[in-house]
Amino acid sequence: MKVRRRPGLAGIAAALALTVGAPGAATPAPGAEQTVPYRTVAAPDQAVAAPPTPSYELVWADEFNTTAVDTSEWNYRTDTKGWSQQRPENVTVGGGAMTVHLCPRDKAGAGCARQVDSMDLYTGGGLISKRKTRYGYYETRVRTNTGSGWHSAFWAAEAGSGTEPRTEIDGFEIDSHVPDKVRHNVIAWTQGTFTSKIYGLGFDSSADWHTYGFEWLEDSVKFFVDGVLKWSQPYAPGTYPHNFLNTWLTAIAFDANDSPGVDESALPGKVQFDYVRHYARDVYADNDAPSGYSETGTGWSPSGLPAFGRLTGRFSCDTGSAGRWTFTPPADGTYQGYFFRAGGDGGQADAPVSVWDGGTALSRTRVDLTVPGSAWVPLGAHTLKSGTTYIVRIDRDGPGCIRADAVKFVRS
User: Fold this and answer.
1) What per-residue string of b and e applies to 141-178 under the rule 16 or more CB within 10 Å gives b?
2) DSSP characters over 206-242
3) Which of 15, 19, 330, 371 is in the most buried spot, having the most CB atoms within 10 Å?
4) Strand (E) or helix (H) holding 363
């Protein structure tokens, strides 16, 4: 079952009760039917499995309630790193959980794959979401493995990116020789790393299920464990890249933080993920997004002016050209709209930016693109409905060039 949206916290709580049992019930923890030995624990109180504020709406989730990986949503992690090779065969879904099997060298069967070359390696694995997302609240519920030598993580980073400026957010990193400790990071590749440093959780992450979440806002990232804020980091879009990220759920054998090496007596082992969820409150539409932006007319080229999130903008100086963003709000409500103005010489002084509901224009704002610098220009308050697709459009209808970068709608 894939939950695409939720009507409210009460609705998702009811769904969770059906999945893992009410707090204190005798229902086994997710994945209890797996062949690898694991202690049986009660499901934790689901009150902690919620975003920081009730204004968030669930926009994407995988509850892992099927019997196989949903390959329309996920790619497998298949690299070789540290002491392990990551294999698709090591990832299974069943019993309400996704399991990454941690396996000895040259072992096959029961969730374990042999490495595909002659290297004497262990095997681990993981999943990488195909969809790329940006702001909102992300959460997973995890039980880590027993035995040293493994690095488990829930993180967001663009898969396959090179050395260009980009962001990585590590919701948690746990090394199995210290299962009672965790670290969170915000990494601006090519610029620097911000870290919570390693700190004590107050519990053994391998002995029970716990939730880990991070809230990525326009100006900061906040990290939560079992619903409690643990660390936050300012992260301004004018200073650091705010690109669109894939979600990763992984476990690999890795020499991290003075690990004593892989405890082979604990293999095969496993790390289990009960679910992964992404909640949204506001709407951001960007020409750099994987979808939702298009252009008409001629003369469109990349802009050299600073763009939102240190990404790229677009411009056209041809009559009749237009840039268009489409979006669907996560919930009914009143939203304040904004247009990201990248201003400077050569811009149109009164470029029309309009908001549309289908074929009906809701508002029209003239934006002066000759003003130097960048800023969010208000587009007015709009009453929007979930499930409805809206359009924001900028048209070149006068002297000068129009520039298209990003728009946002912030829920009141």
Assistant:
1) bbbbbbbbbbbbbbbbbbeeeeeeebbbbbbbbbbbbb
2) TTS-EEEEEEE-SSEEEEEETTEEEEEEE--TTTS--
3) 330
4) strand 360-367
270 contacts 34 by C-beta, under 8 angstroms: yes
Whole-prediction pTM: 0.88
Q: Are 28 and 40 in contact (CB under 8 A)?
A: yes
Q: Are 340 and 311 in contact (CB under 8 A)?
A: no
How would you write the pLDDT of the chain (412 residues) with one tens digit per residue?
A: 333 333 333 333 333 333 332 222 333 333 332 322 223 333 333 444 578 888 999 999 999 999 999 999 999 999 999 999 999 999 999 999 999 999 998 877 668 887 777 778 999 999 999 999 999 999 999 999 999 999 999 999 998 766 678 999 999 999 999 999 999 999 999 999 999 999 999 999 999 999 999 999 999 999 999 999 999 999 999 999 999 999 999 999 998 888 899 999 999 999 999 999 999 999 999 999 999 999 999 999 999 999 999 999 999 999 999 999 999 999 999 999 999 999 999 999 999 999 999 999 999 999 999 999 999 999 999 999 999 999 999 999 999 999 999 999 999 9
Strand partners, 228: 225
285 contacts: CB under 8 Å, gap ≥ 6:
292, 293, 325, 326, 327, 392, 406, 407, 408
DSSP symbol at 27: P
Closest CA to 337 of 390, 297, 374: 390
Radius of gyration of the chain (CA): 23
Instruction: Sort 378 into a burial class: Cβ within 10 Å, 0-12 / 13-18 / 19+.
Output: exposed
Q: Which residues pair with 408 in a beta bridge?
A: 284, 338
CA 296 – CA 188 distance, rounded (Å): 34
Residues in the chain: 412
For strands 84-86 and 122-129, give the pairing: parallel
